[in-house]
Queue: 3 jobs
Job 1
Amino acid sequence: MVLGFTAAAIAMLISLIPAGIVIARGDLPSAVVAYQFITAVMVMVLALLAQAFQRSSLFELPVLLALLMFGGGMVFVRAMERWL
Amino acid sequence: MVRDVCADVLLGLAVLTVASASLGVLLMRDAYQKLHFVTPAALVAPVLVALAVLVQMGLVENTGETCLALFFMVIAGPYLSHATMRAIRVRDQGDWRPGKAPRAEPEQ
């Protein structure tokens, strides 16, 4: 296990707390923005953990999440624009 | 040893970028301002993380997959930010184009 990558992943997860507060307490557009922020950071966290545990198979997860980030984000954005 | 130090420095910069962007998302006044702080976390920090993996591992399959994830984020990030800004403006003003009439309120 690579300590620096693990520590960076944990620090990034802690950095998500303010965005979580925005999702819980902010208005809808702010919550959507915070959701996009969390998704972008989670891609990095998955890559950092895959590197930390030295498992090649885990590197597919950040690739997949980076692809789904666009689709999921667009669904939320269109829903906010049209129906919410 | 040198590789480890370089990777740690890059990771530290990435964490600093994400932490400051997270505070920006929390402290800014409205969604328009908050959206500006998503970009450092979605574009700058992934580049630093990919560089850290590259420095640590060299040119191997893991580095390629990290760069692939980075590529998708770099492509998708600006589109997503633009669509979000447009949706927020449509929600607020009724139309994203300047000078258009505000959206009529639904009848009760």
Job 2
Amino acid sequence: MIIFAKILSAVFALIVLSRSIVDYRDKKESLQMTIFWIVVWLAITAIAFFPFLVSEAINLFGGNRTGLGTVFGMGLVFVMFIAYRIYVKANRIEKHVAKLAREVALGELKAINKPKTTKNKR
Amino acid sequence: MKMPHKTHLVIVIPVYNEGKVIRKVIDSLPKKLEGVGRISVLVVNDGSLDNTAYEVQKTQAILINLPFNLGYGGASIAGFEASRALGADLVVTCDGDGQHDSKDIKKLVAPILQNKADIVIGTRLKKSGHMPTIKKIGNWGLNFITFAVSRVWTTDSQSGFKAFSREAVSKIDIEGMGYEFCSEIIVEARRHKLKITEVPIKTIYTKYSKKKGQSLLNGINIVTKLLLSKLTRTK
């Protein structure tokens, strides 16, 4: 199970990092956001590979492990719900915006092809 | 479908920041082709940040501008829609970085003119001698992924040099905005029972075209988006 978690987090980290770097290279994302996602996903991968880091962090802040599983479970459900909502909305918006952009471009084409009409002189 | 006597070929070039080479690419395109009555060149400027639009305006090509960058797929879909509006009987898609040899257009359109195919893929991998090894590996990987989702085997699923019949252009309905567009074409061809064939093409690898080509990181994005598209597709 731990090995599966490690592989899963590494794959997700690779996807997110590659997307962020490509977006930054294409000037679609700012340097700050790129660094933010790199740091977040490196942290997630580090926790997956070295789980004792979580215990260390809890001990550092004076906590204990009672009810930790429940908190993590609830957190995971909430994160999955938010991810689903964002995915659905982003997907819908992306399609609408792309259609709109294409219509703008095609409008340009129709304007080029429009036959020039001349008014009849009386 | 029988080809009309005066076949209208539209060469679609989706471009993003290709100001340095786009004029050379357009100038190299054929003005006449056997079996083709008329050739139009349509450049889809995909929200370029450089002087691409200015350079295209100096040529005879038809230019349409997307208000912002949609990605390779989004620009190609716009090119298809514009081709339909222009009354194209045949459409050829071609990259704007100069990696394709325009002499190969004749080979690409021939199977469609002879009613032997609806989609012709210009394959770089049958003459892949000059292709960098990392690109060869990436391409074969994407060929397998494309086969897994479409059940159609092609030797160069990611080639941007393709020809389409009027029927193919009217039937293909793609949602992918990025480079997953290339694989989605094959999925769509299978869905609509369109005939696909391949012809070997020459690829011109310059320092510029190597720099502009897809990276391994992009390959990961293609796979993710292709699988997501397969899972979420409603049609």
Job 3
Amino acid sequence: MKIVVCIKQVPATTDAKIDPETKRIIREGVKAELNPFDTYAVEEGVKLRKRFGGELITLSMGPPSAVNSLRETISVGADKAVLLSDRALGGSDTWATSYALAKAIEKIGDVDLVICGKQAVDGDTAQVGPGIAAHLCWMQATYVNAVSDITEESIIAKRMHEDGYDICEMKLPAVITVVKGINTPRVPTLKGRLMSEEVDIPTWSAADIGADPEKIGLMASPTRVVKTNPPPPRESSTIKITGSSEKCAKELVRELRLRSIL
Amino acid sequence: MEHHIKNKIYHVEILPPKQAVTIEKLHEGLDGFAEKYNRVMDDGRCACITDNAMGLLAFQGTEVIEELKLKVNPEQVMIHLNTFHTKENLDEILESCIRLGIKYLLVISGDGSDRLPKLQPSDVGATTVEAVTSVELTRYILKEYPGKFVIGVAFNPYEPEEHEFEKLDRKIAAGATFVITQPIIEKNAVVDKLLENYPSMPVIVEAWMSKKLSLLSDAVGYEIPEDTVFDPLATLGELHRLYPGCGVYLSLLGFKYQIDKLEGLWK
């Protein structure tokens, strides 16, 4: 089985700033990290590859520095990684990005399954995974929190939604986007981290993947950001719980559960 | 552990390199770790290696020791082990300890973060609790690896006293055989009570070796002003005088300026 996990390098901050002119995220001077949701996609890829054999390749479109996030995926178990980086791809929205990633997946060839995190924490669109499936004309399941079975021909996935969940059986090749609860991402080992530095990660250009220049970059992106606002800061509040120790403890646990902290 | 106290062997905290750094910084961190570790070994002291301290992702002490092929004297290494691991990872660490000959563990609940998994009660065979603490972890280690480890636990004199002693009783019942306190900088009534209530238990008091005393604010539960003047070496000397029967754990020891001045301080 050949699995591709698409990942994104995002600003390592919850205080993301947006350029008021270009309406794009300011990346300069901000530390970057692997999109937290993608760590679950990588872990699922590692687990499936371990269980069923085959090859796990991670793929990212971004600036040259995104190679560091790809190395992180190697350090936790990916076999290979590919960086898609070209000025011509700059400014791509989710549609143009998913087109470019789909072209790269075609170039990798014989891919059975593509796994993405449910969304990136910088853009929060959750559109790239479904976009890849659309460009490739493959089946897809979003918000997957369990892969219960997989064969050479099909995959059975549990897909979460507001009212419960769906059990989806899809023919392969397919695309899934995964949510936080699907697994516990492993932490890189020192051996893995040092080894990842030795791995050669190729950089592909738009021409390398045979992308149509009319379908990539800012000009080919149908999305127009009209206005952006930073989200309101989270409000903090204090609750005083009184009564016996037992009553207070119960009430505290209830409050923490209501806020999904416990 | 009595041997450490009797022979005036300092416990020196060493932090392994952090995860989120460039490869150049990682190599610098590994070199720095090896230098500190070897110095502690050469001085005949005990290296105490933290486990994702403050919830910040770092490499494990055991994997660093193995990767750098550092020498282990079982009497001179202590590994911190907290509850923020997967079961697989926990067992890997414990098996590495056995392979390396490390027997001293400081078992703590620890600080978590978004990137750190938390042990589940079922991972450690606990059926009556909702969350794994150092009690369940201690019990698990001693049950699964009998005779392999000597386990110490933490004692926080800044927590509500009754609760902290009740917790300590449970830790001891689980199998802990020595105690390390949170940092103290002067005579502490709760530590005095600890020594009085558990006369046969080896107690190691933690000495704060950073000049920045304000960093202790979180531990003590009140704000220490940033400009507080603090002399760590003088305080350490005072702790030896106040607690002559205790071992001493040195946190945030300066390897450039302080380590050479330790000689002769513990008389």
